[in-house]
Request: fold
Amino acid sequence: MLDLKDLEYTEQDVDSFLVKMHMNGALSVLSTALAIYLIIWKSPKAMGAYKWFLLNIVVSIFWFELFIIVIFTPFPIFPNPGFCAIGPLKQFGWYWGSTVPFFVLTLFLGICGMSVNLAAAFRLSAIYGVSQTLIKPFYSGLLLLCQMVYAAPTLIAGLMSVQDREKSVAGMLQTYPKMEKFFMSHTCFVIPLDDNPKMYICLGVALIQLVVVEIMSAMIIYLSFKSLIKRKCFMSAKVYNMHMQFIWSIGAQFAVPIITINTPFLLYCIFLISQSPAGVDFSPYLFIGVTTHSFFNTLIMISMTAPYRDTVISWIRIRRVGKVPVVPPISVTLVNLDKRATIVK
Reply:
């Protein structure tokens, strides 16, 4: 069994990590471009302003992944609770180039989580016919501000918890002496947990904010389902099926970050706390898994939203038969969608 005290990282490990991250970056760009194209140019008029809320989700995820893959590029140095910046920010030193960007990630996590909440809130308001209120300049600006600063308390608590780096590094190198060469040649920082109650406060604030945003999403989506069923008698079958389709889609999009972000971080924390050797192989895949978020979000959005799904299927058919089919009007597409939904029901 591997003795963690003998663990050391090499430049080959960093190069391998960078290749995988850049591959995910290319996947992120392609999936985001496809999602933006479908939302802006292939959304039916029946979607109304909801397409801008979908666009908000896509763009928020893209900025999150762009920051991780291109700008920050954090390399986890398991079994230490720390990271090394191997992106462009590494030239700014351990504090501005590694420590601050790590806690800035919490802002992006909050932005991504709240973007799903806003889309779910719009769906709920649309069921009651008051969605126009949310898109007024004052309310939309207020919602956008809440989305941008939701995770600010975690960011502030994290920066306040940073203590003397030399003391933290000395303690880490005393436990893992073979990491000294790698650690000192990169822009790295260690999250100080020993004798640092401020860091535990930061972790507590982060946990509370994460749980709150997920509870909000789950509650709004649940209320949307419940309200739609209650108001079914006031809607045509076409409108009802359209609402149900969008609610299922946003529910699945809510599940994506739980799988791609929350689960990897949870496993990483378990390996970190237990100091399990399994964390050595898993830790490089922490951010590699996180940066698949946009791909799976786009996949869910296309597969569960009929207008986008029909568009992609038509592209595949064109490629197979080698001729351009006649594309029906949007209204006809929606009617066909509703007929299929009714038959399935």
User: Anything to note?
Assistant: The chain has 15 helices and three strands. The longest helix spans residues 237-274. Residues 4-344 form a domain with the Rhopdopsin 7-helix transmembrane proteins fold (CATH 1.20.1070.10).
